[in-house]
Amino acid sequence: MQPVSDRVIDSLRSALGPRGVLTARDDVAPYLVDWRGAHRGDARAILRPAGTEEVSTVVRLCHDAGVALVPQGGNTGLCGGAVPDSSGEQLVLSLGRMRRIRRCDPNDDSITVEAGVVLRDVQQAAADTGRLFPLSLGSEGSCTIGGVLATNAGGTGVLRYGMMRDLTLGLEVVLPDGRVWDGLRTLRKDNTGYDLKHLFIGAEGTLGIITAAALKLFPATPRRVTAWVAMPDVASAVAMLALLREHAGDHVSAWELMSRQALDLVLAHAAGTQEPFRREHAWYGLLELSAPRATADLDATLETALGHAFERGLVTDAVVAGSPAQRKSLWALREGISEAQNPEGPSLKHDVSLPIGDLPAFVERAGRVLEGVLPGVRRVTYGHVGDGNLHYNLSKPVGATDADFVARAGELSGAIYDAVSLMSGSISAEHGIGTAKREAARTYKDPVELDLMRAVKRALDPDDLMNPGKVLPPA
Ligand SMILES: Cc1cc2nc3c(=O)[nH]c(=O)nc-3n(C[C@H](O)[C@H](O)[C@H](O)COP(=O)(O)OP(=O)(O)OC[C@H]3O[C@@H](n4cnc5c(N)ncnc54)[C@H](O)[C@@H]3O)c2cc1C
């Protein structure tokens, strides 16, 4: 990596024009810190190309000058991947001006969009043609297609439709030397060797710059039923998943879990939320069945499934949304959890996954171990049961100081990751590695896997100019 000279900035400015290169401190500042203010860096300039050719020119110029680039989309990532380091020697490459929907074809069930298109705009473009683009995240009003691809984002639709990787047909990528790989095909079948798009999905910008993507569309699902249920334990939530699938098959589109502790925080801090039942329960689930207009009587299916769940003692109370407003208020209880932790002081977030059947044992084991490390530590547990994905977050014990809690952060996270590792789980289910989990990756990822990842990185980016310092722990 070389320092960024005036000559390099001048050539970038002549390639991109004045709108394409920001250098004034006030213009640069918003790109140097992540959405939560947790990661901060420095950069001499922000590059804002308006099309693939311009991205290619930028990358070639930087490659020739030995300057490192940090790709950035909506900057909503949770692991610090889109923020430059503190050296000031890296440049941020923002895809924010590349917002064209190139093609939306309902007959092909595909949509081809540029990397800077915001996720919600893709959902809307699909809806405008009577189709569904099913990726759905809390950040969908700000995150971009390039970002959700680079982090292989998940969210609430994974149970039925899969992660971003499963929703992708083809990619256009600018490689670290500036060449453009045009893999922008919408084929459902193409067995002509290595499926290269999967290298770039989830790579967090360390192998190249994604400039456009061809994505899958699905039939719209305007028929929808939503219920909020109470459960005695996590084992019931796991058994409920199987029961729901027996009754509703592919119509099960969400099955979300929350602990009482998580609901307590939402009720305390999220305006307009209400206790869903007369008495408190240990665990809650939010379930949704959905279908295209013509198919299935979802109300009857839900009623039968809930009847069986009550009989088996999996569910001890339930409320079914009777209107769109009620549905929204049930989802608000689930979606409010992350923000409701903020007023409680610093929180330690863990986005882990486990084999689905092991979720009950993990919650029991991790809870026991954490109580030993820091008695009273609050476990704000929620997640996507069907994906084996828990957001296993911690807040300080009532009455503890922020400083005392933060001082134990390493020990607490270590205890959680040890439990995950013992049960063959993953320390990052959907948020990625970035810089935040790079050292944990060194400890918990298989060394052979890390070696293979380094070999891929060396093959594609031998000069380490694509988002250096992210994902891979130094050897
Ligand atoms: C409120 C909230 C809720 C969230 N909920 C979820 C959730 O439910 N599930 C989930 O999976 N995630 C969730 N996230 C995090 C999620 O990872 C990001 O929202 C999103 O995937 C990143 O998109 P972005 O455009 O903001 O990318 P950025 O944050 O800008 O970048 C993320 C990473 O991708 C790289 N990158 C960005 N664009 C490109 C490109 N064009 N080419 C190559 N690399 C690129 C960056 O270098 C960085 O490493 C949530 C975040 C927030 C703030």
Secondary structure elements and pairings:
Blueprint: H1 6-16, E1 21-22, H2 25-28, E2 46-47, H3 52-65, E3 68-72, E4 90-94, E5 101-105, E6 110-114, H4 119-128, E7 131-132, H5 145-150, H6 158-161, E8 168-174, E9 180-183, H7 197-200, E10 209-216, E11 218-219, E12 223-231, H8 234-248, E13 252-259, H9 260-269, E14 283-291, H10 298-311, E15 317-320, H11 324-335, H12 337-340, E16 347-348, E17 351-353, H13 359-373, E18 378-384, E19 389-395, H14 402-407, H15 409-422, H16 438-444, H17 447-460
Parallel strand pairs: 2-4, 3-4
Antiparallel strand pairs: 1-2, 5-6, 6-10, 7-11, 8-9, 8-10, 12-14, 12-15, 13-14, 13-18, 16-19, 17-19, 18-19
Helix content: 25-40%
Secondary structural class? alpha+beta
- The count of strands amounts to 19
Number of helices: 17
* Proportion of beta-strand residues: 15-25%
Question: Which ligands does the model contain, each kind named once?
Answer: flavin-adenine dinucleotide
Mean of residue pLDDT? 95
Rg, nearest Å: 23 Å
Note the overall shape.
Answer: globular
Distance between the termini: 18 Å
Largest sheet: 8 strands, antiparallel
- Uncertain segments are none
